[in-house]
Every structure is written in C-alpha cells, then in structure tokens.
Write a sequence for this structure.
C-alpha cells in the first residue's frame, strides 16, 4: 500500500472523504500519505464528527494566521489566544479550505472568550482571513450568521464559485439580498423556514439562480403563530416554484398550494421527487408537467387519513400518472388500496416501467376487512407482481396491513424468475417457523437474496440498504 502511486492514493483517499476516522488514521502512516490527506480533510474541516467545543485544534490553526497587530489588539480586549511559537505551520491549511460553517465558527471562538461581543469580533477577524486565504468558496452553511461577510474585501471573488448553500429564514432579508448579488450559480440550496413572515429576501435569492439542480425546503416555524404562516408560505409556492426550470431534485411537503399556480410549474429536468406528506393531487400535477426524466419518486404518508374516498381517487390518479409520464422510473413508493381498479393500474405500471428497480407499497385500509379478505388481497397482489414485474426489479417493500398465506407466498417464490430479489416487510406476519423455513429454502436456492421484517422507518427509507 505504501508503494502506490501518489495519484492512486489520492483517488483512494477521496473515496474516504466522509470517513474522518479512517482519514485521521492515514495521517500517521508516513509523510506522503499525510501530504495527500491534509488537503482532503481541510477542504471542509467543519463536517467531521468532532466535539469542537472541547477541541482547540481548529481554533489554534486559524488564530495562528492572524497578523501580529491583530493578535495584540485582540489580546488587549481580554480575548485569550493560544501562545504561538515562531515555528511555521507544516501546511498552509486555509489554502485548502473551500467551506464555511457559521455554527462551528461560533463554537470554536467560544474558546477565546465567554463574552458575546468578544466572540463577534473574533469571528469577524476569522471571516476576513477566510476571504483572503480561501482560493474559492464552494460550501456555505450560514444558519445563525451575524456577519455580512459578502461585503468583506475579496468576498465577491470567493462567493461567485459557491455551489452549495444551507440557510434558514431567521436572519435578516438583507443577507439574502447580499448573496443574490454574488451567488447566481448555486447548484444545491437547502432552506429551513423558521420564520414564515420573512421570505422576501429568500425569494430574491432563488429568483436569480441560473444553475439550481437540488432544492430542499423544510418548514419549521412552530414558534410562530400559525395564522401568519399560511399567507407567506402560499406566496412562496406561487411566486417561486414556477421558476425552478432546471431543477433535478425536489423535496417538499405541499402543505399549502394554489392548484392553478402549481400547474404552471414545469420541471423538464426533474429526476428525483420526494414529499413528506400525502398531497397526491399536488404530486400528480408535478409529475404530469415533468419532462419524463423522473427516476425516483418517494412519498411518506400520514398515519391517519380523514377523507379516505378522495384520497383513494388521488392515489389512483397518482399511479396512473406514473406509468403515463415516468417511463424511466427506478425507485418508487405508492399508496395502495385493496380495490380491483388498483390491481389493474399497478399491472399497467409494472408492464410500462421497465427500469423499475425498487418498489415500496403502503397498504391503506378501505373499510373493515375480514381475515380472508386481507389474505385474498395479498394473493391478488403477488399474482400481479408475478405476471407483470419488470426484469430489473431487485427489491420489494411492503408497509402496512399486508398479509400473505404460506401457500400464496410459496407459489409466488416458486414462480419467481430472474435475478435474486430482496423483500422487506414492516409487520410480523412472516415471522413463524413455517415461514422462516420456506424463506430459507428459497434463499438457499438463490431465488431471493433476502426476506425479512424491518422497522417502519427502515422500510419507508429507500436509502436503507438490505
């Protein structure tokens, strides 16, 4: 391993960039490894699982870059800086850095002083350093920011390269207007909405983006009066959503929206669509107006649904729109009702969407079903899967009131053809010894790769791997 070419080592360590424990271990191997790993670690030094309030390393390194005059003036204020030797640093650490995390900066400056005013001044000096030393700025988490760093000298050069931004709406709108002047090619934007009365600057920042590919909006405004929450949120959806022309990933909840305005939203490049509630009517509108490139559609349903009849119709229309407008779909979650029309529509979907790799089905009750009706429901579902499932399917997930008799399950596994299949289920209906014996039989014969019960959270999490 120590004899590997430097370029090969770099590629290997790049794959470990999110594994801080391994990277820190690599530092100690030899000088060559250390020289390769340090730039990777310092690209985003705030992202690792470190208790920064108890670790002074970052604080010492950054403070060492301060000029002697700045150090003296800071010391006169009573701010404690580490004692410095005249020995230079082994690396120019800040020259590798491409990111700022405001929260972590606040934590490490607490090491220098307990006073809020002193911390503010120290943070300001750090941000001045970053604007001078960073070759570019790629990632910014500006939640809780108190410094308008985009007005600092050389900030315009740094911010024009910003690719990923995470922020919240608690900060003053002037910050967003300042960013909108400099950052117009952000690719990933995550906004936590904690103040629904303060969205004008956010809207401006979004409007000027020319290369946005990933957008995530999280509502977290429980501290505000709900009466005030509906109006600005509605304005946000109406004014901003139609402007995301190049969006590739969309995550939202559609808590409130105007149907006619939503119909104006056309996302021809959209590939991933996630929503954390079940407003399937809104989701169907998005799908219908997409460009046919959707590969992943994930939904998380409410546990209780008040208007079951209208929801059933919206769910049916949702499935129909999938096979009409999403020929490339690979990962899909569906709300499924025990009705004949659902089985027919699911069959059409499976025969149309040949790229489907993973299918998650949520079972929704439709009236009171007897034990026999539940088992018949499971039998009909497995029959549809056998005769219609595309050959690329590698994973089935069942969440809710799905039950399969031992005979039905054995017939399904016996008739299954193609590559190995993994199955997750959220209930305990297949936990009996007879079921385990049957499952092991088909695992041994390589018909299925795995079949097991998992928690509700793991079943609905499509990123959870078997």
């Amino acid at each position: 391993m120590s004899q590997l070419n430097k370029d090969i080592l770099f590629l290997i360590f790049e794959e470990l960039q999110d594994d801080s424990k391994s990277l820190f271990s690599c530092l100690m191997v030899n000088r060559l490894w250390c020289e390769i790993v340090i730039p990777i670690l310092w690209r985003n030094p705030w992202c690792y699982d470190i208790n920064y309030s108890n670790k002074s390393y970052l604080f010492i390194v950054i403070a060492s870059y301060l000029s002697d005059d700045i150090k003296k003036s800071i010391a006169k204020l009573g701010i404690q800086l580490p004692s410095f030797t005249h020995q230079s640093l082994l690396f120019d650490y800040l020259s590798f850095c491409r990111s700022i995390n405001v929260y972590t900066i606040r934590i490490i400056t607490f090491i220098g002083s307990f006073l809020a005013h002193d911390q503010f001044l120290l943070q300001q000096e750090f941000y001045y350093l970053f604007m001078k030393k960073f070759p570019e700025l790629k990632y910014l988490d500006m939640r809780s920011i108190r410094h308008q760093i985009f007005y600092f000298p050389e900030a315009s050069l740094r911010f024009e390269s910003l690719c990923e931004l995470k922020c919240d709406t608690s900060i003053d709108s002037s910050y967003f207007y300042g960013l909108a002047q400099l950052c117009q090619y952000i690719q990933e934007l995550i906004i936590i909405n904690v103040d629904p009365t303060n969205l004008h600057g956010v809207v401006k920042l979004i409007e000027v983006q020319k290369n946005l590919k990933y957008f995530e909006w999280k509502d977290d405004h429980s501290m505000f009066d709900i009466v005030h929450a509906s109006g600005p949120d509605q304005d946000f959806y109406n004014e901003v959503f139609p402007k995301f022309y190049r969006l590739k990933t969309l995550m939202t909840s559609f808590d409130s929206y105007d149907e006619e305005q939503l119909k104006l939203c056309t996302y021809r490049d959209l590939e991933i669509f996630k929503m954390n509630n079940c407003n399937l009517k809104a989701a169907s509108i998005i799908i219908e107006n997409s460009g046919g490139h959707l590969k992943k559609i994930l939904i998380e349903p409410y546990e209780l649904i008040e208007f079951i009849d209208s929801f059933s119709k919206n769910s049916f229309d949702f499935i129909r729109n999938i096979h009409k407008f999403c020929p490339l779909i690979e990962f899909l979650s569906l709300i499924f009702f025990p009705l004949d029309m659902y089985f027919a529509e699911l069959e059409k979907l499976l025969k149309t969407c040949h790229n489907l790799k993973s299918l998650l089905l949520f079972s929704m009750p439709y009236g009171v079903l007897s034990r026999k009706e539940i088992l018949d429901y499971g039998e009909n579902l497995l029959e549809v899967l056998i005769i219609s499932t595309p050959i690329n399917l590698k994973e089935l997930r069942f969440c809710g009131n799905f039950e399969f008799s031992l005979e039905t399950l054995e017939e399904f596994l016996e008739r299954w053809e193609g590559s190995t299949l993994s199955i997750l289920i959220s209930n305990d209906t297949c936990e009996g010894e007879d079921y385990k014996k049957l499952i092991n039989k088909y695992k041994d014969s390589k018909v299925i790769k795995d079949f097991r019960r998992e928690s509700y959270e793991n079943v609905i999490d499509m990123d959870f791997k078997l």
About this structure: The two ends are 31 Å apart (CA to CA). The mean pLDDT is 83.
